[in-house]
Automatic annotation (TrEMBL):
Coiled coil: none annotated. Residues 4-163 form the FAD-binding domain. This is 2-polyprenyl-6-methoxyphenol hydroxylase. PANTHER family: MONOOXYGENASE, OXIDOREDUCTASE-RELATED. It comes from Krasilnikoviella flava. One of its GO terms (molecular function) is FAD binding. It comes from the Bacteria.
Length: 398
């Protein structure tokens, strides 16, 4: 049975689902509020079951050719002294089969594979009405349509979720931390390398890949609510500068480069914990349904696996309700395992006090001199790999 499907959100989850459904012959429209496809972007990891998904889609080998090739990582103190250095995969918590690539490169692979779908940019869902045998949708542009299924793959702040399940306060749980990411000049002359600075309650890192000129800086810090969503970019830049005032290493220079960055991401580290992922003929996917936060390192893999599982369920159930229930039953344990990583990881990534920072750096310096340090670091990231493989993928039905 071929369906008409509207996918709200042109990120990894939405594009991966469009790839599978269009290949099966469904009539798929992807609507994305950004004015055009995004290139570049932060580096993301594909692990575990998500590698199987890319393989099923015929994209794994091409994804491997787009690796960031980050080959080394280091941790430094306020004076820039290196506490530890290791290879890039170990530093990023990756097994050597895992793939790290730029988000924009993954988007392009998925979008090209979903060429059979219609892609609409600069638009978004304004309203929807489930009539029982279809969903009447009006977009912000005024365009209207009727669809058999609507999929909300529109991220942490999902408009679709708000329309069908209610406001964010019911579903979004803040972890007590914030993240900011910006493109900056490669003033440190990094060559496929990542360097992380750890201060009390404040972490900053910068990296350069083989795929982009310049570098990217990320800031992670603990904070109570900042009201950032009510501010424009200048206000968010001020919040970031205030949060890192007085920090050492290269932090002042990185902050000075942020205003000139063409792309500043600024948001809370949050998770979506919704009691259900569907209502009638509308279903949620990826971060809109089960955001695990950037601290989990598993957002991209959850998006890919979720899209695969939903596509499989839609292929084996004529009624959307049955498909959505099957999708949720299979995904719930996998989501729970991966969401558990976020709160645990962020406490290691952002250290609370000066004493804890000193102790952490001292431990890293000792570990850095021990034989087998990479094996010890790999053992610390074993929970990520267990969670990444904590699902049995269903068979796809054409």
């Amino acid at each position: 049975m071929n369906r008409s499907v509207l996918v709200s959100g042109g990120g990894v989850a939405g594009l991966a689902l469009a790839h599978r459904l269009a290949a099966r012959g469904d009539v798929v429209t992807v609507v994305e509020q950004a004015p055009a496809p995004r290139a570049g972007g932060y580096k993301v990891d594909v692990r575990g079951a998500a590698l199987q998904v890319l393989d099923h889609m015929g994209l794994l080998e091409e994804a491997r050719t787009l690796r960031t090739e980050v080959r080394a990582g280091s941790v430094v103190d306020a004076r820039g002294r290196r506490a530890a250095s290791m290879d890039g995969d170990t530093f990023g918590g990756r097994g050597h089969d895992d793939v790290e690539l730029l988000r924009g490169d993954l988007h392009r692979l998925l979008r090209e594979g979903a060429a059979g779908a219609e892609h609409v940019y600069g638009d978004s869902i304004a309203s929807l009405e489930d009539t029982g045998d279809g969903v009447e949708v009006e977009l912000a542009s005024g365009r209207t349509g009727r669809y058999d299924v609507v999929v909300g793959a529109d991220g942490l702040r999902s408009r679709t979720r708000n329309l069908v399940l209610g406001p964010d306060e019911r579903h979004v749980v803040d972890l007590g931390y914030y993240v900011a990411v910006a493109t900056v000049p490669n003033r440190l002359g990094l060559d496929r390398e990542e360097v992380t600075y750890v201060g009390p309650g404040r972490t900053a890192l910068v990296y350069a890949t083989a795929r982009e000129e310049g570098a990217r800086a990320m800031f992670l810090w603990s904070s109570g609510p900042l009201g950032h969503r009510d501010l424009g970019r200048a206000g968010r830049e001020r919040l970031l500068a205030d949060a890192y005032a007085g920090e050492g290493w290269e932090v002042p220079g990185l902050l000075a480069d942020v205003p000139a960055s063409p792309d500043l991401l600024f948001d809370s580290l949050s998770q979506v914990r919704a009691e259900r992922w569907s209502a009638g003929r509308t279903v949620l996917l990826g971060d809109a349904a089960y955001c695990a936060s950037a601290a989990s390192g598993q957002g991209t893999s959850l998006a890919l696996v979720g899209a695969y599982v939903l596509a499989a369920a839609l292929g084996t159930h004529d009624d959307p309700a049955g498909a959505f229930a099957a999708y949720e039953r299979r995904m719930r344990p996998f989501v729970a395992a991966n969401q558990a990583l976020g709160p645990a990881n962020i406490k290691r990534m952002v250290v609370g006090s000066k004493g804890q920072v000193r102790a952490s750096l001292a431990m890293l310096r000792v570990m850095d001199r021990l034989p087998g340090k990479d094996r010890m670091m790999a053992a610390m990231t074993a929970p990520i790999h267990r969670a990444a493989n904590a699902i049995e993928l269903p068979e796809l039905v054409s």
